[in-house]
Specification:
The protein has about 180 residues and is α+β, with helices and mostly antiparallel strands. The protein is built from four helices and six strands. Strands 1, 2, 3 and 4 form a four-stranded antiparallel beta sheet that branches. It has a two-stranded antiparallel ribbon with strand order 5-6.
């Protein structure tokens, strides 16, 4: 912690492991520094080292930040105001160029253009889907009309055959009656 011996003030930097959040067995003393500003710079370097190691081109600030808060080292200084998580968030925004926070996007020009093109593709897909549904409906309507027409034609043909068969049967019955 902050040690005070009459005229000497020292700022200790402790490091917790975010993967083992609140597990004091994973905590270690990184070093003691003469000023709060010097201790803050050391903490910033610890965070920056992790972020540089984990950064991949095209990665969003949110993704990198999530990596940090899950797996990164969390330096802190008793008696000196420093938040490693706030610093990491700031550095992730700077390093990645865009950030997503609760639905609001802060992005660079390329990301904005990509999102606009993605929106256009989504609209085209929706229009295609509607057009496809309309075409499918027309196709099935035409198919049903054809089936109904074909059924009606077949019914007419079947009716003619029945009439001819009945007529033949009746004629045959009359012939048998008169032949006897």
């Amino acid at each position: 912690m902050c040690e005070t011996n009459n005229q000497l003030s020292s700022f200790s930097v402790y490091v917790d492991d975010n993967f083992y959040y609140m597990d004091e067995d994973e905590r270690y003393l990184f070093g003691n520094y003469e000023s709060c500003e010097e201790a803050k710079q050391v903490c910033g370097k610890i965070v920056d080292d992790f972020l540089r190691t984990e950064y991949r081109p095209g990665m969003s600030g949110m993704s990198l930040y999530n990596q940090y808060i899950i797996f990164g080292e969390d330096p802190w200084i008793p008696g000196c105001s420093f938040s490693a998580w706030d610093y990491a968030k700031y550095r992730c925004k700077r390093l990645c160029g865009f950030w997503k926070v609760k639905g609001d996007l802060l992005w660079d020009a390329d990301y904005r253009k990509e999102k606009q093109e993605e929106g256009i593709r989504a609209k085209r897909k929706a229009l295609y889907s509607i057009e496809h549904q309309v075409r499918s409906k027309k196709f099935f309507d035409e198919l049903n009309n054809w089936k109904e027409k074909k059924f009606a034609d077949n019914l007419k043909t079947f009716s003619k055959i029945i009439v001819l068969l009945l007529a033949g049967s009746i004629l045959g019955a009359f012939l048998q009656l008169f032949m006897l």
